[in-house]
Amino acid sequence: MRSLSALLLLALSPAALAINLNAPLNPDPVRTPGDVLTSDPRVVCVSGYTKTVRNVPQALKEQVYRSYGITSRESGEYEIDHLISLELGGSNSVRNLWPESYKTNPLNAHVKDTLENKLHALACSGKITLQQAQQAIASNWQAAYVQYVGPLPGGVTPPPAPKPGQTSGAATVPVLPTSTPPSPPVAATTPVPAPTAASVAPSGGACPASAPIKGNIGSNGKIYHLPQGDPNYRRTHAEACFTTPAAAQSAGFRAAR
Fold it and tell me: Could you tell me which residues belong to the region Disordered (predicted)?
């Protein structure tokens, strides 16, 4: 009996449980302040939008692991997570990536996924602005969970809000784009403003930055191509240029498959 008890104590020792001791439950606000590709709900609320954003390269994932001091890991233990998720307009910038564990309990990547889905639903139904959703999850995802979903699993209390100028812990940070400029801020009490022109004429088969979505008419019909995630974008000769996927669809174009 004593031998069995000793084995149980050994199995439950700190060394045996150390696999996730270094797993960060919150991203470092200096390494990962958050970054967005777009703040336009007309873009992210289109079904299938996240599939148009390219996957994070493995080399960049390894860079993120190293920056957080994670030198070894088990298969399936972590994901390189977007602090501001793709479905909320987040980018693949290193400023928006951190290693989040699937195996820590009670908080883990699955719990944050629940928050991401809730914020997406709220933003796309107009109950909150997309920028409010982005700021909430970038500032303190655990506090955002309590606000928009409910109590955290296991009765966990989210970390307190930081004081102005604080540089450690969960921080309120500016959400700055590094990939493409976001649309103008969406006011909470006003509808999303319509662009001044939903489409513009291409120049030499290319589209301007203000209307980067290429429309092409061919044997397969009227198809539009997005600048992110579409392997055919660069070689597509534009016959029309659109500001948003919705504008292209209104003109009778469908997304490239």
Answer: 157-191
